[in-house]
Amino acid sequence: MCFDNGVLDIVNCIETSTSYVSERELKVFKPKVKLFMENQKDKIRMINFSHNNILSGGLPIIVDIILDLNLMLDCNCIVNVSNNRIHGVGDFRDPVINSVKMLIKNPKIKYLDMTDNPFCSIDQIDFFQVLT
After folding, report:
1. Each residue of 56-95: pLDDT tens digit?
2. Per-residue b or e along 111-130, where b marks 16 or more CB atoms closer than 10 Å to that residue's CB
3. In Å, what is the CA distance from 80 to each residue of 1, 19, 22, 70, 126?
4. Does pLDDT of 42 surpass 50?
5. What is the DSSP code (8-state) at residue 55?
């Protein structure tokens, strides 16, 4: 984890030693991001969660992290969760949809980058068509 020039990089540190495999998927635990950011003076312009191998169960954890950091976010913050494995299939459909909705409704988040995730496919066209 590092913070430089308004960019908080949380790359390759979410699903490593702080996670375990259950019957259904890799479980993610929230890193102590708020504690890490406590003494920073700059606002967060971008949070980078890309390339973390995050599965659908990890997206609600990302929402929790962002809620913890909400006061530290710039008013045009970018959240990058690209290049993960967020699928939103089966039992994970509703949690992923609810998490995405929470992120895009946050007034401080201007862009949410979910490219290169299985969730961003033609299979979810009904969800993406109703977004404004």
Report:
1. 888 998 999 999 999 999 999 999 999 999 999 889 999 9
2. eebbeebebbeeebeebeee
3. 14, 21, 26, 16, 22
4. yes
5. B
